[in-house]
Amino acid sequence: MPNIVIVDLGTGNLRSVYNAVQHVCVAMPVSACVCVSDEPAVIAAAGHLILPGQGALGAWMQQLNADSALRAAVLTRLQRDRGPVLGICLGLQALYAHSAENGGTAGLGLLKGVVRHFSERRGDGATANAGGENSLGGVDKIPHMGWNRVRHTRAHPLWRGIADRQRFYFANSYFVDSEQRSEVVGECEYGGAFTAAAAQDNLFATQFHPEKSQRAGLQLLQNFVHWNGGL
Amino acid sequence: MALAKRIIPCLDVAAGRVVKGVRFVDLADAGDPVAVARRYDRQGADEIAFLDITASAEERDTMVAVVEKVAREVFIPLTVGGGIRRLQDIRKLLNVGADKVSINTTAIERPDFIREASAYFGNQCIVVALDAKRVVNQANQANTTSPQWQIYTHGGRNATGLDALDWARRMVGCGAGELLVTSMDRDGTREGFDLELIARISAAVSVPVIASGGVGNLQHLADGIRVGGADAVLAASIFHFGEHTVQQAKQFMAAQEIEVSL
């Protein structure tokens, strides 16, 4: 029986992730067990692990670092041969070594790149216009809030049944600036390209919220619960 | 390739029931917020807003139950407003599946509440709702050359003395992640948004602005984006009465070269 564990780090809306995963599991031929947990033993035993997070990365990392057994369980589970992991929002940003959030926050450093604030891309003509981005390509509204297109930069089992340039729901002020092209699987455009999804071995992580992205989001979650962590 | 402008149907809910008549002829129970939300989800709504107009605090928990039920089957962002006074109220709603809360009166009474809420939950889930009305002189005339707007509470009954633009900037400074701007002059009139108000606030702040109040036809929605510079448009009656579907609104806007999620 598939055993899907959603890691609870005390921040953000875990119920929505739970609801959406439960929704796709109902349609599965075998019944799945979906749970939300912060217990190291439960996390260590997870078949599929989901690392969601909303709000501030600093608080999220603090929560993880405060409990050494929890941190060890999550880090072990993130290792290459330990089964599929899906990061969502902060669950993507935390995979990088450094974020500009909260005056500088250290992440897990599993992927190569940094997390920046969109104000670095602020246009100089911050006036209202129909495009939402000014002619210089700068952003004038932060957070980046709403439905934006995700371009597939490489094939991945989790893109199955999802069109290239499909829209997903985003709500982020910080974005991942990847330094390793091969880790990027999806890109989004907001005053320039940023990493919408990254993947490496058994890891797949999105900046957008699949649990709030209607049909396309549910398709991605369904692909995840069917994924064995390989290519 | 750009971020889509959002269309947000808004439901007024009292004691767990949709009020201000939703009139889908083919919907068995148009008072059921779950059924109505499901309908808007299928029509392609980008988000759904719920405004709890319940008078008593005891009945507030019915809103939590409504959100919980909707979030089990509708997988798009949900914004909930009305009667939010404590961090605990926000936590309850987020924990059952709301994505954002909108705060109006409490922000005026205690601006620091926005600072606390934003620091605690992240500014992406804190929407500040502004009810603004044009300032008129003793002859009841608005200044047309340099108009001003004042912030009101209690559905436009109580003036606060706050200038709308100053207040908008101040709330963003406190950590509002989005502003929901309603013109009390236009609300319920079906004459269209107060586009000047929307445009001034949109230009004055760095966060997304949702235009609200006065939508009577699809051109009004398009004008909110093209003329008002809003990032999202909110409407109730044109969708509730089945005059237009959200999908039709999006096609109408797309035909005017507005980026929408079709």
In words, what does this structure look like?
- The complex is a heterodimer of chains A (231) and B (262).
- Chain A is an alpha/beta fold.
- Helix content of chain A is 24%, strand content 30%.
- Chain A has helices spanning 14-26, 40-44, 57-66, 68-77, 90-93, 214-226; strands spanning 3-7, 33-37, 48-51, 85-88, 96-99, 105-106, 111-117, 144-152, 166-172, 174-178, 184-189, 193-200, 203-206.
- A nine-stranded mixed sheet of chain A has the order 2-1-3-4-13-12-11-8-9. A four-stranded mixed sheet of chain A has the order 6-5-7-10, covered by helices on one side.
- The two termini of chain A are 22 Å apart.
- The model of chain A is unreliable at 125-136 (pLDDT under 50).
- With 262 residues, chain B is an alpha/beta fold.
- In chain B, strands 1-3-4-5-6-9-10-11 form an eight-stranded parallel β-barrel, surrounded by eight helices.
- Chain B has a single domain (6-255), classed as Aldolase class I (TIM Barrel, Alpha-Beta Barrel), CATH 3.20.20.70.
- In chain B, a hairpin with a 4-residue loop joins strand 7 and strand 8.
- The model of chain B has no long low-confidence stretch (mean pLDDT 92).
- Chains A and B meet through helix 1, strand 8, strand 9 and helix 6 of A and helix 2, helix 3, helix 5 and helix 7 of B.
